[in-house]
Amino acid sequence: MKRNILKITVALAVLCLSVVGCTRLDSGRPICVDCYGETIRVACIGDSITFGSSIKNRTIDCYPAQLGRMLGEKWQIRNFGVSGATMLKKGDKPYWQQQAFADALAYNPHVVIIKLGTNDTKPQNWKFRNEFVRDYVDMIDRFADLPADPVIRICYPVPAYAERWEISGSVIKNEVIPLTSRVARKSGVAVIDLYEPLSNKPDLFPDMVHPNAEGAYLIAKEVYAALTGLQFVGEYKAPEPAKVLIIGDSISIGYFKPAREMLADRAVVIHNPGNAAHSANGLKRLAEWLGDTEWDVIHFNHGLHDLKYVDERGRNVQVEKGKQQIPIDEYEKNLDELVTRLKETGAKLIFATTTPVPDGTGIRVRGDAKIYNVAAERVMKKHGVPINDLYSFAMPRLEKIQRESNVHFFPEGSRVLGEQVVEHILKALEEQ
User: Fold this and answer.
1) Considering its fold, how many domains does the chain have in total?
2) More confident residue, 4 or 97
């Protein structure tokens, strides 16, 4: 038995030496997936082409997102692209000075894909061409010094089919690509050729500089092949739109419409029929609202109806004449059960805190929303559910977005809340 274990250990050691995964200095061999005992973190460094500018459904069709779907669950891909960024430190928008660079270093990736150079060809930048190789090598060294000891691959830029935004296709082909090859030789890293596979394909570049979703698919295929040693088969196919369910009361009904419009190219967004009201009602009707749909994201809230005052028959009354519809301990218990049932759907969950209650509503007390939110946050922390803190978001801008002596918002206020909701939903979709 011990002899067999020794043989397996030796075999794995040989595999790590013959297949990349233990050092950045390589000749372009595939990544050794088995050399990692954790999810392989991949940082995609680049400009607007990496970011996905001009791609209609950027969050799902930029090349890093498509690469992530190709590679599967063992890999985690992060897009650190910055529109307009240059490799040159003296460029007009050096990647070195962008927050994305600091974020990418903090990510401590196992694999780094660098695709910069297109914006460097602008005249105001390319006058520093003699520093391009030095700056590129410096960036490689910065990533190479990370604790994860990442494998680093650099890319030839894709073609530019017109001299737009002062970007030069001829400089990319005749100067940037040869200099990138020199960088590879000096640093001992492998090059991924993205220029040739996208050459003679101007139809994939609507503005002649940025590839569309199908062009991004070709980029992802090349990077996939470089990382795995395999060819990804099949043609580009637009993914099905995501399915998003918003559960909530009249506040969510207000931001639902603008959120749905903002997500129209990314997801089908549905609101529970009518007003979700209090948490006990949510428990009662949850199965009905979920239906048979396989939801990708569920954004939910209960609170304003829980904390309001009602009489013995459940009718709204002045605070001094009634009691809170759902006491806070019962509210917390209901949320705990709701989250337990929602987690069974497999959807990404987002809890929205209850928005502020102003003075003068009659049936609610100012400050109770904050108290109920504290209870809700305990439940969400227990279950690991992300929170969209609409309460804190709304507080500093209440005079502009919320009606006087009313928990409801002006149309513009609902739109502003909708933007915040969309931001959290998109983040959840990107993490899928």
Assistant:
1) 2
2) 97
